[in-house]
Amino acid sequence: MNDTLQLGADGRLRHLLTTEGLPRALLVEILDHAERYAPAAAGGGPRGGVKKLPTLHGKTVVNLFFEASTRTRTTFELAAKRLSADVINLQVGASSTSKGETLLDTLKTLEAMQVDMFVIRHEASGAAHFFARHAAPGVAILNAGDGRHAHPTQALLDMFTIRRHKPDFSKLCVAIVGDALHSRVARSDIHALRTLGAAEIRVVAPRPLVPAGIETLGARVFNALEPGLDGADVVILLRLQKERMVGAFLPSTSEFHRDFGLTRERLARLKPDTLVMHPGPINRGVEIEGDVAYGDHSLILEQVENGIAVRMAVMAMILADAGDRESAMGNREGRGGVAQ
Ligand code: NCD
Known about the structure:
Blueprint: H1 24-41, E1 60-65, H2 71-82, E2 86-91, H3 99-111, E3 117-122, H4 127-134, E4 140-146, H5 152-165, E5 173-177, H6 184-195, E6 200-204, E7 220-222, H7 225-229, E8 234-237, H8 253-260, H9 264-268, E9 275-277, H10 290-293, H11 300-329
Parallel strand pairs: 1-2, 1-3, 3-4, 5-6, 5-8, 6-7, 8-9
The structure holds N-carbamoyl-L-aspartate.
N-carbamoyl-L-aspartate binds next to α2 and α6.
């Protein structure tokens, strides 16, 4: 997939579609920006953040979700609101039959409302790239998850969360455990970890849940949990994505839990400072025990919270750039046509 689509001719971020090929300097810039947005992301709560920043005042962001979402959609909405953007949430029933034209029609219709940014989640891999290719100049696309392909803001918030606890990626062994086959998070995490120079990236999963060719992305594959977790500094668990499973990938979820579930006993055998992460939603008692999900090692709720700051950073970086481009180009007129 064309990952240069997301960068402008000046090398700056225009859309965020994937972490694949995202230059290291840009990735680090997003994390650094997110660090600065963290107090405002806290929204004037007990930690005393600033309630709203005026950064995106007058901008319109549409959350266009063709798939279910709790934390991603909500944190995108909060991020936009904390930057003073107007936000519209559209939950669209997915149509797998007439994808191409339906998507284009939806895009055209919404563009006519002078939207500045679309945050898109879709069941089809490549949907966000499709939107980016057809979007009018100055309209930004953020990928909030496309099929099994990519979920770049999740990977960025994962990197942000790891960096806050273990800043030197060159010393890190990161084990990604579970249903990597259906996981856009796993792919986006692997690309980001590699770009940040992680010492070792592992995919730990039963054979049927290992994506073909994952080694070529720089991951070592383990088909058993214990060796896969041995020496890991960070364990990223993945949800068993039953909704994406066609046919029988596994004998049963209880067998998966027996062989690959992170239990308290298994966690106790790991290094004392091992970090446990999960993009959510969790399947309690399948890939993770409830006690572990909210235990001492777990960063799961921190990941959710960090999602706001990271999404604020991405939105501000892109829309500020788009604004600059627009003022350089004159005004927003004439952007109603869709490039074919
Ligand atoms: C992930 C997703 O949708 O890809 N969730 C999320 O965005 N927090 C992972 C999942 O659904 O299992």
